[in-house]
Amino acid sequence: MSTENTDLKHTALHLVHKKLDARFTDFGGWDMPLKYSSELEEHRAVREAVGVFDLSHMGEVRVTGPQAAEYLNHAFISNIAAVKVGKAKYSMICTEQGTIIDDLITYHLAEDEFLVIPNAGNADAVFAAMQERTEGFDVTVTNESFETSMIAVQGPKAAEVMVDVVENVTDAPEASGAGDTVATAIEGLGYYAAFRGIVAGQPCIIARTGYTGEDGFEIIVGNDGAEAVWAKAMAKAGELGGKPCGLACRDTLRLEAGMPLYGNELSLELTPVDAGLGILAATKSKDSFVGYDAIVAAKEEGTKQALIGLVGEGRRAARGGYEIFTAEGEQAIGKVTSGALSPTLGYPIAMAYVSAEAQDNGVTEGATVEVDIRGKRHPYTVVKLPFYTREK
Q1: Are the C-beta atoms of 211 and 220 separated by less than 8 Å?
Q2: Comparing C-alpha atoms, which of 370, 146, 100, 96 is closest to residue 261?
């Protein structure tokens, strides 16, 4: 953690966060707000009211051209060409060996225009891989990561904030289910859908996406307009009991929702099949993409591990890297990938990989395992993910 690190990249909102006395941390080479006050209070604000996040460290890669859809179908493992204008899709970009370079979201903005959102630490690698894959396609791939900001509004009152802060709808495709007024556009916007609009006088992309397990929106805006959008969103959020939120609570929120994090549950050593996300690979609707043969083989062979949820008692949380054992076993059967004391549930939760052999031997939902926490084994129960699901 730091209060200032001039060696790291700064978002357009960095000075705003400093004025709010944020504590900063290095995340993917960016000096990002970890928390502003209490991560517990920020977490609860998102679960009970609304939280506003600066996610401007995320990458933005725009893909345009008459063969944009065909190109993305080649570059990514999912059927991006089937995504309607106004919709978005969660997918992955993989190596020829089928391993995960990154998980990402792709927005279909117009007939020949897409916007890809890679993770902060992987943005350069994703852009480089995307550039390498353009050969033979009439397409332009542009890295807009350093020109673009992203502000997330998340929580049960997120829609109320957005109805107030969006001033105009400039483009709401029929695919989004949105009408031509702000209220109908927000209310009609489905999950993983987006439209263009104006916030604080700034042209924005407004999407119903998020990484918290709550209802929420992400506003994509040019850096010049970031402060105005942040100020307007925070003003309304504050009226509704909301708070500015940092990466500390974002991690516990996504963990409760059972959402994977690159570097924890996902990595360059794993295929989507290994991660339990083989369904993202459109091996039936497409006959080729980068990594196709390796992923088909992985699906046929089956995974050697399984991602599970774990819940414990007391307040000792299992953290990433901690080993997992059966009650009577001396040989580790897996490792924790992410863990924390759940602010919402009040007990320790963790995501972990265990071997397929362990699953075959009964380490499935309802089973008890032990996690080595600093030299002492603690009992955990295997549960189905996610740990938390919001009320609709």
Answers
A1: no
A2: 100
- For residue 193, what is the DSSP state? B
Q: Pick from 79, 389, 118, 386: which is nearest to 260 by CA?
A: 386
Q: Which of these, 201, 195, 200, lies nearest to 183 by C-alpha position?
A: 195
> Do 117 and 219 contact (CB within 8 A), yes or no?
no
Q: Which CATH architecture has domain 304-383?
A: Beta Barrel (2.40)
Instruction: Give the per-residue SS3 of 5-67.
Output: CCCCECCCCHHHHHHCCCEEEEECCEEEEEECCCHHHHHHHHHHCCEEEECCCCCCEEEECCC
Q: What is the pLDDT of residue 177?
A: 53
What integer is the mean pLDDT of 45-54?
98
pLDDT (average), residues 282-307 = 96
Supply 174's token pair: 């029929």
Q: pLDDT, tens digit, for every residue of 110-143?
A: 999 999 999 999 999 999 999 999 999 999 999 9
User: Domain segments of the chain: what residues?
Assistant: 14-58+148-256, 304-383
Copy the structure tokens of residue 154: 């998340």
pLDDT tens figures, 158-170 = 999 999 999 999 9
384 vs 391: CA distance, rounded Å? 18
Candidates 3.30.1360.120, 3.30.450.20, 3.40.718.10, 3.50.50.60; CATH matching 14-58+148-256:
3.30.1360.120
Q: Is the pLDDT assigned to residue 180 strictly greater than 70?
A: no
Mean pLDDT value across residues 279-307: 97
Report residue 2's pLDDT band, with 50, 70 and 90 as the boundaries.
very low
Supply the angle between the helices 247-256 and 39-48 in degrees, to the nearest 10: 50
